[in-house]
Amino acid sequence: MNIFGVMDVSGSALKAERVRAEVVASNMANAETTRTPDGGPYQRHHVVFEAQNGGTFQESMANQLGGGSSVGAGNGFKNIYTGGISGGLSGDLTAANPTPGGVEVTGVIADASKPLQRYDPSHPDAGPDGFVAYPDINPLTEMVDLMGATRSYGMNASAITAEKSIFNSSLDLLK
């Protein structure tokens, strides 16, 4: 992970959560939409997240050091600190435990659930039997999703603020 690693990871999460909030807002806005350009009622949408591969700690360290041989394959990062850190490193920080990366939106998919049927013979989209097809959207579920997106967005914004504080503290030490 580079010096801006926290900002990269949290920035990707901010972007993903913003998309999630937009999709939830679209679902809530179209909760009563009975007619779409594709025909039929609006279909609820879901955001699909996928973890970005952040690479291994060894790869990130090698990239930061310009591919120096001291962290090359076989030597391992642990060898740099041999005798330098009391107690040593716990666990394997190489290929078995990759550094976590951010998140990305890989798609927005339509819900495959059937539309709700409500009896309303006076509605212009009512069928010959008097039933109207409405989207299967529960406002409570959408609000819970929106609150989750909001909380996650706030947590990642706090992580960026903490990272900025770390940078400022480090710069103060160098003065």
UniProtKB/TrEMBL annotation:
Localization per Swiss-Prot or TrEMBL: Bacterial flagellum basal body
Name listed for the protein in its UniProt record: Flagellar basal-body rod protein FlgC
Assigned protein family: Belongs to the flagella basal body rod proteins family.
Biological processes per GO annotation: bacterial-type flagellum-dependent swarming motility
Subunit-level organization: The basal body constitutes a major portion of the flagellar organelle and consists of four rings (L,P,S, and M) mounted on a central rod. The rod consists of about 26 subunits of FlgG in the distal portion, and FlgB, FlgC and FlgF are thought to build up the proximal portion of the rod with about 6 subunits each.
Top-level taxon: Bacteria
Domain called Flagellar basal body rod protein N-terminal: residue spans: 7-34
Coiled coil (UniProt feature): none
Residue intervals of the Flagellar basal-body/hook protein C-terminal domain: 130-172
InterPro entries per UniProt: Flag_bb_rod_N (IPR001444), Flagellar_basal_body_rod_CS (IPR019776), Flg_bb/hook_C_dom (IPR010930), FlgC (IPR006299)
Predominant location category: other
Pfam families hit by this protein: Flg_bb_rod, Flg_bbr_C
Keyword terms of this UniProt record: Bacterial flagellum, Cell projection, Cilium, Flagellum
